[in-house]
Amino acid sequence: MFGNVKDYGETFQDSIFQTRNGSLSSTNQIGNPVTYKLVRVAGDGSLVPATDEEMLEVKNLLEKNEQDMPVLPDPIQTEEYIPDEGSPSQFLQLENFEGFFQSETAGPYTENLNSRHEISTELSGNVELVPSKVLLQEPILFSSNGCSINQSTDVLNATASPKEPALSTAASKPDFSRVPGEISLANLSIKELQETFRATFGRETTSKDKRWLKRRIKMGLINSCVVPTTTLTINDSKLIGGDQDAIDAFSKGTVDEETATESIDTPASPDGIKGHSNDFGHSPVETFVDHYSGNEDFEGEDGSAKRVRKPTRRYIEETNEKQQIDGSMIPSKDPSSIQAVSSEGRVVVTRMVSLAGSRIQVPYVSHVRRSRPRENIMALGEFRSKSWEVKAAPEEGNLNLSPPQLSNDVNRVPGVKSASRCVQKESDKDHLKPIFTDVDQEMMEPELLDSSGDSSDDNFVDAPITQSASGRKLHRAWTISEVEKLVEGVSKYGVGKWTEIKKLSFSPYTHRTTVDLKDKWRNLQKASSSNRMEGGLKKHGSMAIPTHIMLQVRELAQKQSPISRVVSKARVVKRSRSRNGFL
DNA sequence: TTTAGGG
DNA sequence: CCCTAAA
């Protein structure tokens, strides 16, 4: 039930509470399958998970209220529940939900809630309560009303216990101790599951497949209510199947909001046989969010199913990085846990990881740092979907390598330099005829051969993969020749004319954007001005830049900033050209 | 889109 | 190297 909500806490000043636990509703029947998650509603409508303190505060509040307050009938207790907008105590007016979530007004948290009425009142303004219980009782009503809460709202993960048909109307005090662990689909019999299914979807099922039933039920519950949103700060929604550890962990806030609990997982086919569904059999926690929603699975069940946004590559990447750091997630080393699932026509490699005692699937990411940081096999999907204009080249055979083998290590090996230079990329199609031809470069810039920077950028085999995988350009150390070209370009066209320089002097280098040039120049300038590299103050990682270049840089930089730029430039160009034998 | 700067 | 504000 613990959706991981990205923490936008700092950005919001208001503190609104959402109570968790059905006890808020006056009657908390035993086995009340409803679970409310305590969250804070941010200014933009997104939900921020409650902190421990907040949880405690609310708890105390509620307990206090219990003492000096009569028990009121639970408005949504019965199946005959009818939304009554006139009654302030109807704090769970489904039809108001939409209003709730869209409400921009985020009033301050009321410290002294003395009665449920107050709570109710507050609710209409600031608090959002999503009763998941209703799902079981009034699936249709809820899904057509309360669940229409989408945009700019985050979702609450609902948990429900089929064992508790939510029939009890006996009023009871809040019982926080039983908040967790409502779910136990795992222990239900086929029949029970079928009943639950009926309660959830409003229709019978003859399926005898436990796994399938459980899956469907969970999906039905979640998807009919847990609706992804535009702001999508929920990173996960899944049902907890009686895994106390996980629940406790959550209660203690030990579950990192940013921890990846997302699963790029395609739900199994209805028959529960397809794909990797077997993995869920013994898993206390099952992820069932369909990020790709391309599946016909539950959508065929009830058309109300909403789609869940797929996590961004960036998110996954960072998420995985975090895992490595905080160790909150112990990635399974078991190779068998790694598997490829297909969705939306793509193939995604996932692996099982442990989170708070539960097992979930996350996109596979190699945890072995290679020469290049961040490799993500997600690229595989990207790679396959992209139509690379790979021209016949010896390296093309590498395309058949398995992803791990395509690691960056390959392109760092000097020897793998592409024998055949690739054609210019489309971005260069309209570039002016480069001053330096390939031949010139080969002759003038011999060091390019051993600098991975050069031709590897056109290496369609590895560069695109690793690059798209990380979503970030792979770092390429600047070679001396590149620096020289840069300096030369600056001297020719002037500082700041990056586009010109790029076009006229860097056309062969399909990487190195104008921004790169600018950045590099900035660095050079800094280096040349501030410290005199001589005294061994040079940074370890970078190569020593010939002093004559640095002098040039300094000179150019000096003439560029002061005044009379036009004059300076003219002189510079002149000098530069004569120096290079041009003109 | 291109530049300039901050991160 | 990335992201953005400006122009």
UniProtKB/TrEMBL annotation:
Residues 472-529 form the HTH myb-type domain. InterPro entries: Homeodomain-like_sf, Myb_dom, SANT/Myb. It is found in: Nucleus. Residues 478-525 form the Myb-like domain. GO terms for molecular function: transcription cis-regulatory region binding. Signal peptide: none annotated. Pfam families: Myb_DNA-binding. The keyword Nucleus applies. Its main location: nucleus. Keywords: Nucleus. It comes from the Eukaryota. This is TRF-like 3. It comes from Arabidopsis thaliana.
